[in-house]
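Fig. S4 source data, part A: sequence.
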Amino acid sequence: MKHISSEIKYDLYESMDELSSEDKSLMLAAIEATGTAYAPYSNFHVGAAVLMENGQVVRGSNQENAAYPSGLCAERVAVFAAGSQFPGVKIKAIAITAMFDDLKEPLSVSPCGDCRQVMAEYEHRYKANIRLIITAGKGKIMVIPNTKTLLPLMFNAENLKK
């Protein structure tokens, strides 16, 4: 038997002001997207903004439903919209943030497993990393180099080959 471990490495910025202008702009787009969330049940508004290789930005927000499994997370809304609007164009980065109804400052948030799997599929499909720019609470920002960092044992098309 071997004991194998994995660790997560990411960059932590003390504030948005430390980000590049491109990353800051993308995070601001994600923050703006929280305003379009439909979250009457959780009051947890999540926004995502996807930066495409062609420079376009596609926004998404969580869309809840009284039948909880029928809703969609902001990340998947944005990624699927990007794939639909710009087929064949790689995703460079995605910014993700969240807010409760009564707060004005972004909260710490991390993509759920379904969203990680969807982003991993796009990385695999285009053979290109997707950087994740995520609010870490108290004004801090995490920048994660790729989805594989968050989902190291991901399932992909290679698993389906005979």
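Fig. S4 source data, part B ends here. Residues 154 and 160 are 12 Å apart (CA to CA).
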